[in-house]
Specification:
By secondary structure, this protein is α+β, with helices and mostly antiparallel strands. Helix content is about 45%, strand content about 15%.
């Protein structure tokens, strides 16, 4: 690796010299900089160009480059000079100016000098490959002892913190029971917290806030040298008072003694940091590390993630430009009130002040009267307060408390939303009188700019960890009345995510003029479920800008969250700018740009930094289509087809249902009926105990719906009759304990399946699917994630049941459409229509031509000229797929080679792997099946071939649930081996015969899909 980098550098250097004909520093420095960046990247070091260093004498220096640890602590430096300079003289000058001498390279394109700890370690010619490599190995091999100690302390912190937390919680609970002063203070604080944060705050939440306060007190003091923060800040002061009534004697020091190495490492590392921006970065790193160890659940739910400065600066520059462009004002001008509604560690407010650095008088006014930030979690609130106040002091030269920071949940603070405010709890009896006054002052202002990065995690639902995001009554009402009401998507629940909630809140808060600048997910402008969102914001705003940063790992499995996403998460993100103008008529002008799909996060950030702002961004102007799609618009005859369900005059089928979604598959599904009975009894007992008022049994799985049924007092009695069979995955049946109190969502399963009665259904991929399109018929209910864990699946049936009555699910409207198209002489029945629809859903040409449409909405069905041919194909496919267990098994070659050395009573190691190129399936260490035609693997459903579905569903997988893993992990492949061999042989037959039909479909001429009516 190092040799390759040196070779690349020498080639680049030679090219630069040849092309430019010069030895100037500005010409050849790029080659050495690229070398340092690439080498540093391999060691998780970040290269910062023109890095600012402030000496103890307050001299401001700018070194050409610095390599930084992820803690924002400098690792080493680089300074480039011209070849005509006297390098040694330049080195001496730089050191006299206060340049660091711990680990720095000086080079002038002809020679490089390495200084470490104040002494020259080595120098060499820059075109001497082996010597340059040795110099760089010494440079990158250097290590700050403080960093090594810090990383060691972090590891120890992870090990020691749980015991300290247990002891802190025990002592606080003890004080709650025995300490009258603490009881009174805690009760008062809880009452205030319920109004400041949300009404569901509990005494346990107050305890955790107090613990965070206690654990971080020393950290903040040491990083910023501000020992008085916890005594002066209005919220910290209230917690400090609670803290003071809790501790007695020397108990605090004794309790926290185990964490002293962590605090000591922070103190020594913080001492290395001179510049304020580095202190901010270091504190953010400490915050993220601390939070993810202290409370990973909260870190996940709050979206604890650092917003890269490149993105923050881009958003501020762009917002300033939009403000000037549309309103003839700059952000720093008077009467431009700015709010960060989810400030986290205060990054946006800090960067805004840096943006205003050259105008200290205006900054002072803005800081004290027109800059606002909200935060709802105590630890980031503290960090933000320190960051903001210390930055202001560094810029203007004096300390002023930041009066715009409020400890409040923005989405609950609806008092300033005008006619959309509804009722609000009294926020003016909050954590402190000063905090309530701050909230009141913010609400009295006309906010012009809302800018920030809302929490990204929209769908937390782990009730065993008490980690679910909560509803926001008024904001959710507004979403229902706008984005949902005006949308057509079947899945409306996803619209209530944190991104759209913040956009809805901000859209109402910025009443008639202003700019909203947010980091949001890609879904709102890319997914079908958000069509109402796009329709509404295109009407409410005059101009919309979207810079799509991609990184959606769920949409593109080739991406890596850590490598391609700027936040290191799975969800794709974008920067969105919404401009509201008074009196604007007509739809918004929508500007869109996207970074390349495979661009790394580092490359994205470099590009963002290089572009600088929207005014220099190359964009496309989007004209939404009539379905309010912005991206991947289609221009075809899709709308002329017959809707599967829910059209203006009706659809082909009366009812469609989601597959069953249990939220606790490991508990209520099993291949073994006996194992399922044991699990179900345990689950029922836990449910009934909780319903009777007992504590939650965390050894079983809980979900939102089970909690709802318990609150409603619904009783569950165990019954063997509740066990039914389900097609869990393609060609893979499972037993299910079918009980609506223990299955989160059964949807319309009861409408399609009645015990003892036969019905056939067609399953199909839900809009928004990410794996391949899947359609498969079944005589049993299907699971919600039937064809892929990442996708949802729906189904419709030939019949439906009302009570015990069987009713046609194929509509009379459908029959009329087919008779009108093909004539009465065709004698078409509803059975024929059912088969015809199934054939069309398997048509490869249909799937390819209308791929984007199928991703956005339910299928629509064309009327092909030769009805009978398609009906016959559909019926043949129905017979194959529903009756797959009865088809003739394919003649596989079975080879058994038992290992004679295997211990008696043991079973061979399970493999269950396929090799399509060789036509082989390896079952275990003893047995393989061969002679399978390679093309059989081409029959795919969702994200696997039919063959691989059988293999996947019979593997011995370690259960994720700890109780299932310990008590009910009874499945062994050896018990089902012969069954699997028989099933594979039949699925091979099904695969080959299915492909024969779909190949015949593909071979049809274009005229075979002509939509014009044929003559009778």
């Amino acid at each position: 690796m190092s040799q390759l980098l040196i070779t690349e550098y020498l080639n680049d250097l030679a090219t630069l010299k040849r092309v430019s004909g010069a030895q100037r520093e500005s010409v050849v420095r790029e080659a050495f900089k690229d070398l340092l960046k690439k080498w540093g990247r391999s060691q998780n070091l970040v290269f910062i160009p023109e890095h600012e260093i402030i000496t103890t004498a307050k001299v401001r220096n700018y070194v050409d480059g610095a390599l930084m640890h992820d803690l924002r602590v400098p690792f080493g430096y680089w300074e480039a000079k011209d070849a005509d300079d006297d390098l040694d003289e330049e080195i001496a000058k730089k050191f006299r100016r206060g340049y660091p001498n711990t680990n720095i390279i000086f080079e002038d394109s002809t020679q490089a000098v390495l200084i470490q700890n104040g002494a020259e370690v080595m120098r060499c010619k820059t075109d001497d490959g082996p010597e340059l490599q040795r110099l760089l190995e010494l440079f990158f091999g250097w290590q700050r002892p403080e960093i090594a100690e810090f990383r060691k302390a972090i590891a120890q912190f992870k090990a020691d913190l749980p015991a300290v937390l247990t002891e802190l919680r025990r002592r606080i609970d003890e004080a709650q029971a025995t300490n009258a002063a603490y009881q009174a203070d805690a009760a008062a604080f809880l009452k205030q917290a319920k109004t400041a944060i949300n009404p569901s705050v509990t005494a346990d939440d107050v305890r955790e806030m107090l613990i965070q306060h206690i654990l971080t007190e020393d950290i903040f003091a040491r990083v910023f040298g501000n020992d008085d923060f916890h005594h002066e800040n209005n919220v910290a002061k209230a917690l400090h008072a609670l803290d003071s009534s809790f501790w007695r004697g020397d108990v605090k020091r004794q309790t926290l003694a185990a964490l002293e190495p962590y605090y000591a490492a922070i103190r020594s590392t913080a001492a290395l940091i001179s510049s304020h921006s580095e202190k901010q970065g270091f504190l953010k790193a400490i915050y993220e590390n601390f939070y993810k160890v202290y409370n990973p659940k909260a870190a996940d739910k709050l979206g604890v993630v650092y917003t890269p400065n490149e993105i923050v600066r881009f958003m501020i520059e762009s917002t300033d430009w939009l403000c000037e462009k549309h309103f003839k004002k700059s952000l720093i001008d008077r009467d431009v009130n700015i709010l960060d509604p989810a400030t986290g560690t205060g990054t946006f407010i800090v960067e805004l002040m840096e943006h205003f650095r050259g105008r200290p008088e205006k900054l002072a006014y803005k800081y004290l009267t027109e800059l606002y930030a909200n935060e709802v979690a105590i630890l980031p609130y503290y960090v933000a307060n320190l960051n903001i106040e210390a930055t202001y002091a560094a810029i203007v030269g004096k300390y002023e408390e930041f009066p715009g920071l409020c400890f409040v949940d923005t989405l609950d603070n609806v008092a300033a939303l005008g006619i959309y405010s509804g009722h609000q709890h009294d926020l003016f009896a909050t954590i402190s009188d000063e905090n309530s006054e701050r909230v009141r002052r913010q609400n009295s202002r006309k906010i012009s700019i809302v800018i920030g990065n809302p929490p990204y995690n929209a769908w937390q639902e782990n009730y065993n960890q008490n980690n679910a995001n909560r509803p926001y009554h008024r904001v959710d009402q507004r979403i229902s009345a706008t984005y949902v009401k005006e949308g057509t998507a079947q899945n409306k629940n996803s619209v209530y995510d944190m991104y759209t909630r913040f956009v809805r809140w901000a859209s109402d808060r910025v009443k008639d003029e202003g700019v909203i600048a947010f980091i949001i997910g890609r879904k709102p402008f890319a997914k079908a479920a958000y069509d109402g969102f796009r329709k509404v914001i295109a009407r409410e705003f005059a101009e919309i800008w979207v810079l799509d940063l991609g990184g959606d790992v769920r949409d593109n499995p080739k991406l890596s969250g850590t490598k391609h996403n700027v936040f290191g998460i799975q969800t794709g993100v974008a920067m969105v700018f919404l401009v509201k103008k008074k009196g604007h008529k007509g739809g918004a002008v929508i500007r869109y740009a996207r970074r390349p799909e495979m661009e790394t996060a580092e490359e994205k950030l470099q590009a963002i930094s290089s572009i600088g702002g929207l005014h220099q961004l190359t964009v496309d102007t989007i004209q939404p289509d009539k379905q309010h799609h912005w991206l991947d618009q289609t221009h075809n005859d899709w709308d002329a087809f017959l809707p599967l369900t829910g059209g203006p005059q009706g659809g082909l089928f009366e009812l469609v249902s989601n597959g069953i979604e249990t939220k606790k598959d490991e508990w209520v599904y099993s291949i073994s009926e006996d194992t399922l009975k044991a699990k179900a009894r345990r689950l029922v007992d836990a449910y009934e105990s909780r319903r009777a008022g007992g504590a939650i049994d965390t050894s079983v799985k809980w979900d939102r719906e089970s909690e709802r049924h318990i609150r409603q007092g619904e009783k569950v009695t165990y019954s063997d009759n509740a066990i039914v069979q389900v097609n869990y995955r393609p060609f893979s049946k499972r037993h299910l304990y079918f009980d609506r109190c223990l299955n989160a969502y059964q949807f319309r399963a009861d409408d399609f399946f009645l015990k003892g009665r036969v019905n056939f259904v067609i399953a199909f991929s839900d809009p928004g699917f990410r794996s391949g399109y899947c359609s498969l018929a079944s005589a049993l209910p299907i699971d919600r994630h039937f064809g892929a864990a990442v996708d949802g699946y729906r189904y419709t049936g030939r019949y439906r049941f009302v009570g015990k009555d069987q009713i046609d699910n194929v509509t009379s409207w459908a029959l009329k459409q087919f008779i009108d198209r093909y004539g009465k002489a065709a004698a078409i029945t509803k059975d024929d229509i059912f088969a015809y629809v199934y054939a069309v859903l398997h048509d490869p040409v249909y799937r390819e031509t209308y791929a984007l449409n199928l991703k956005r909405e339910f299928p629509r069905i064309p009327l092909y000229p030769d009805f009978r041919r398609w009906r016959d194909w559909g019926q043949a496919l129905l017979d194959l797929h529903i009756g797959y267990e009865a088809v003739e098994p394919f003649a596989l070659t079975r080879t058994d080679a038992p290992d004679p050395k295997r211990a008696e009573g043991t079973t061979p190691a399970v493999k269950l792997k396929s090799d399509p190129d060789k036509g082989v399936v390896v079952l275990d260490a003893d047995t393989q099946l061969s002679g399978i035609p390679t093309e059989a693997w081409s029959y795919r459903l969702g994200n696997r071939s039919a063959i691989d579905w059988v293999l996947d569903q019979h593997k011995e997988k370690t259960p994720k649930d700890p109780t299932i893993r310990e008590k009910f992990n009874t499945y062994r492949f050896a018990d089902y081996k012969e069954t699997v061999i028989d099933l594979l042989a039949r699925v091979v037959t099904v695969s080959l015969q299915t492909l024969a039909i779909t190949d015949a479909m593909s071979a049809l001429p274009t005229s075979a899909r002509d939509q014009k009516k044929t003559e009778d």
